[in-house]
Each structure stands twice: as structure tokens, then as C-alpha cells.
Amino acid sequence: MFKINNNDPRDKYAGKYQQIVQKEIQLIAQKAKDKNFFIQAQFGEIITKITAEPTTIEELTETKKYIADCGMEIEKQKREIDKCMGFYKICDEF
Description:
By secondary structure, this protein is mainly alpha-helical. The chain has helices at 7-51, 57-93. It has a domain at 32-93. The protein is built from 2 helices and no strands. α1 (7-51) runs antiparallel to α2. 0% of the residues are buried. The model has no long low-confidence stretch (mean pLDDT 85).
């Protein structure tokens, strides 16, 4: 009796769905890149503090204390790295 053509709306919605998926993937990838840059910057600060040549005994003592306390800072960074790896795993799935 009646023939309804729903190919056009279906194709339109499928295209919009694909756009949403691509934008979500780009958002997740951008978050991963930002987190990675932040982690690298923090490790760069640690390296800078450790490799700075002390000019006085006080600076040497501060550097020694910083190196001793560096384990806790690295442990915090490990949590951030795990979060970042989670972002990359999500990107890999897509």
C-alpha cells in the first residue's frame, strides 16, 4: 500500500553518530596528550632539581633531601601515568 523511504534519515543519523564517535576519540586523545605533556614537565622539573650543581653545602643538603623524598613524588606520578595509560587504552579500543 504505502512505501516509506527511511534510508535518508537513517543515513543522516548514522553519519551524525560517526561524527560523535570521532569527536569523542579526538577528545580522549587530546586528554591523553595533555596528561602526557604534564607528566613529562613534572619529570623534567625533578631532573632539573637533581642535576643542578650545588654551590654551597646547604644546597647540597637540600638536593640530598629532595632525592630522598623523590620516591613519594614518583609514586604520585605513577598514579598519573596509570590514568594516562587508561586514556591510551580507550583510544586503542576505538
